[in-house]
Amino acid sequence: MHSGTCLCGAVRFRTDATPEGASVCHCSQCRRQSGHLWASAYVPTEALAISGPVTWFESSANGRRGFCPRCGSFLFWRDVTETTTSFSLGALEAPTGLRLSKHIFTADKGDYYEISDGLPQRP
Question: Is the bond preceding 69 in cis, omega lying within 30 degrees of 0?
Answer without folding.
Answer: no
